[in-house]
Amino acid sequence: MRTGGQILIDQLLAQGVKAISCVPGESYLAALDALHGSKIDVVTCRNEGGAAMMAEAVGKLTGRPGICFVTRGPGATNAAHGVHIAAHDSTPMILLIGQVERAMRHREAFQEIDYGQMFGDVAKWVVEVNEASRLPEFLARAFRIAMQGRPGPVVMSLPEDMLVEKAAVADAPYVEPADSAPSPADLSRFAGLLAEARRPIAILGGSRWSEKASADFAAFAERTGLPVATSFRRAHLFPAEHPNYAGDLGIGPNPKLFERVKEADLILLLGGRLAEMPSGGYTLLDVPTPRQRLVHVHPGAEELGRVYQPALAIQASPTAFVEALAGTALNVGPAAQQAGATHQEYLDFSGTPLKVPGAFQYAEAMVWLRERLGPDAIICNGAGNYAAWIHRFYRFRRFATQLAPVSGSMGYGVPAAVMAKRLYPERNVVAFAGDGCFLMNGQEFATAVQHGIAVIVVVVDNSMYGTIRMHQESRYPDRVSATDLSNPDFAALARAYGGHGETVETTEEFAHAFERALAAKKAAIIHCRLDPEAITPAKTLTQLRASKVSN
Question: What distance in Å separates the CA atoms of residue 187 and residue 190, rounded to the nearest whole number?
Fold first, then answer.
């Protein structure tokens, strides 16, 4: 006989869970008690939003669901932030929420929420477990749903009294997600389309990739001469230094890459959905029937033909599709010089740092980092214009080294970096955050200090919500509203938390500050002051304003 709390934690152990994130609450005390003395690493967070983002980061890095515990009501509403990210980013994740006692349900008891209604449109599955004996059944199902097809979040509600109820029940076995692979006919049709193409290109995105699949697709591209682009915030799926790499599609992409995709006669869309951001507001491909021949490979049947009607739809995960490609004699495609030309365009676009107003040249710092950090360094960021410098000037060289939200969620970078460094303490982990982005979940820096997690946070401070200010100046010039920010001394804040703090005013100071932060071997913040005029890597605020006025 075990309590529901003990059964629950035993299921997580049976599924190979090594770390969880949480904010403790009285609604799941029995589960917290079962965690005491277990082999699961418990990362105690300062806000449920940050805790949920940490779990989402685990899903991105490992391919198996990250686990987050929160309490009912306010805890669950805070955690919704991370559930939304997991949904849009196709990330496996399980949110476990303490719930009011079963006898009190449907009375609007203290902090009671109907989670089926709250999360019904964003999670893949929402369930309340009312019998302790069914916990193995539901946890196994939750892991399977979170990973199979198009991955995503599962939300499980756990009534407080159920967790102290005792039951005798066997643990569920370890879950491996089911997969679907391309048929011989699919591969034959793809080979024919590729043989006929003169301007093909591949776009990699989504989830359900592996390090081996990434490497094998790079080998396939090299063998066939196929140019390869990556989707928004999925640059780590293909090595930037590979001669076939064409760059990434997202916000502010290389215009030459955008035109190449538009002019392509065949697009292999592998794993991704080509949603609003990478498609330039759904302008890259016509809806519903693209001008280009589209081969769409995706693990979720519901995504095939959802927006774009493909010439060939293949329901398969990227790993299964690439494995099938590796086993074929397919050796046709465009001339290798086309891939070489696209790669040179990428190098030209991302190579030379662009000068912006001010003493701190952010692009030069980014170029220095891409040379200084090893290929296994993990780079994290949330949302904001500061991320444009990462996407343009940093070069991701290895699988699972980029943690960034496709959903465009602010506040993601710090908690994601904290969990990444917890999982991989031997690797350099750097979080980038704008001043607005940092203060969304910057309190998780305290989590890093408490747990001895030596993450480095680069705060790019221009004293504004930069992305919104950019849109204001381009649409409503000289009418600034609600976007100015007054900020603390972030380096002093780091020291107040017990971490290491550095202030950078000039480009020359950055490298020395970064080396000192690394040498400190504890959580660190590097506070970089960016001139407010430097609103994007290529245009200033004044230029945006003048462009609107002239129009």
Answer: 5
Separation of alpha carbons 8 and 230, rounded Å: 39
Helices 413-423 + 48-62 axis angle, to 10: 50
Tell me the pLDDT tens digit for each residue of 349-361: 998 898 999 999 9
Cα 212 to Cα 222: distance, rounded to the nearest angstrom: 15
Buried b / exposed e over 64-79, threshold 16 CB at 10 Å, is bbbbbbbbbbebbebb
Among all chains, which residue has been given the structure tokens 């329901």? Answer: 315
Q: Which domains does the chain have, with CATH numbers?
A: 2-167 (3.40.50.970), 184-348 (3.40.50.1220), 352-550 (3.40.50.970)
Phi, psi for residue 140 in degrees, rounded to 5: -60, -45
333 pLDDT band (50/70/90 cuts)? Answer: low
Within 225-301, residue ranges assigned H as helices are: 255-263
State the average pLDDT for the chain: 95
Q: Find the DSSP H helices in 70-201.
A: 74-88, 115-119, 135-147, 184-196
Amino acid code (one letter) for 58: V
pLDDT at 251: 87
pLDDT at 538 over 60: yes
8 Å CB contact between 263 and 237: no
